[in-house]
Amino acid sequence: MNEFELIDRFFTRPARGSAVRLSIGDDAALLAPSPSCELAVSVDMLVGGRHFFADTDPEKLGHKTLAVNLSDMAAMGASPRWALLAGALPDGDATWLAAFARGFHALADAHGVDLVGGDTTRGPLALCVTIMGEVPAGCALLRSGARVGDDVYVSGLLGDAALALAAMTGRAQLDGDALAAARARLETPTPRIALGVALRGVATAALDISDGLVGDLSHILERSAVGAAMELPAIPRSPALERLMHGAERALAIECLLAGGDDYELVFTALPSRRDAVAAAAASAGAAVRRVGRIDAGAGLRLVDRGGGDVASEFGSFDHFRT
Hints:
There is one protein chain. This protein is an alpha+beta fold. It has ten helices and twelve strands. The protein has helices at 3-10, 58-76, 94-110, 160-168, 176-187, 193-198, 213-224, 239-245, 250-259, 275-285, and strands at residues 20-22, 30-31, 37-47, 79-89, 114-122, 126-136, 151-155, 205-209, 227-231, 265-270, 289-296, 300-304. It has a six-stranded mixed beta sheet, sandwiched between helices. A four-stranded mixed beta sheet has the order 3-6-4-5. A two-stranded antiparallel sheet has the order 1-2.
């Protein structure tokens, strides 16, 4: 296959509705955003050997390639609409491409996303998605809205993606079922789109957890010019990670929980008076949320135990140029 045959065969599909005025096949797509909505736009890149193993199942990789971008839309309270996909491919392996496209399109279909363009070239495997979504004007969830007294929440369970990576690289031992569950969190994360949308007008600030809870929550604190105290025992984790917390691998477990990354859950803040609204939003989205801390007037993030005593931690945000 040449480049254009590859695009036609695996990535050209009919658009949904009239919002896509022109899709794949011209120099640019033409899109018609909904009235009274703002566009939310984000881009993420996954690089072979850096973000995923060379032998990663291509269908799961297709899912994750889109999921990490959808997670950004969730963090903004935006409804995803359109995606652009660019890829450097070592070859035009039709079997690999068919599986990758199957995983990508299945998640796109689940969230009503149209693939409207992109680019391909030959090179070391790298995948880049630009995602575009819509949010009613003035309703986007930002990092800068947290205020002193707000509760801090996280969705889902944290740390399993990092735990899977630790097990796959020989740093941790997991039984078959625990490893399978952790690998699912690493390879096929669930973007919290419904929760993000439900939190419009409820959350005061939000962000998706891609680089570890401590580092990502710190971005909210910096943009909002506040501090926070977060209870280590309150952070939700799987039974497998909880078992490691009480054994010889405790340090690794805490690292996975606080700084592992690849969780793609949401961390958000809300007024204490909105606790019922937070619970209702979570229930409507079918997502579990847990209150894990409180915004205070200080600076930076303090980790505390159940009694409020400080817990030492040197974890920060993941940095591709330092790790």
